[in-house]
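A protein record pairs a chain with a discrete description of its three-dimensional fold. The following entry can be read in just this way:
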Amino acid sequence: MKFSLHELKDKTSLELTYDFTKQIDDIVDILAIEPAHIFCDLNFVLDELLMKLTVDVKMELACSKTLKPVTYQLGFSDEIVFGSSNDADYPLTNPLELTDIIFGYIVSEKPYTIYHPDAKDTLFEKEKSPHPAFADLDKIVKK
């Protein structure tokens, strides 16, 4: 997604759909991703571009316990400042490349752990029985 600054100065908003399937090859916990719906409000102030970004994307993530696929709907909004000041998030370049920036936001906004409905009953270790000398203690302690 490359946009020239001349093209963006004529617009107040962008609405587009972009497919990030090539970018998820290096991300092990994103199994599949549908095309993302992206909406941007654009505002040029002096030598800076203020972009209000809204992204909605449906993806399939790997369960943190079982690695089974879990469908997840991700939606977020954020403001990005492009410019040369210290307050800018990214430099204002011509053309403006948005693919990696938006994908970075998607990766950072997705949950780090997600569980499949079947995963709550999954145990990795067997429950240990207490030493025989202490076996009767849980009968004495009131729960």
Remarks:
- The longest helix spans residues 99-109.
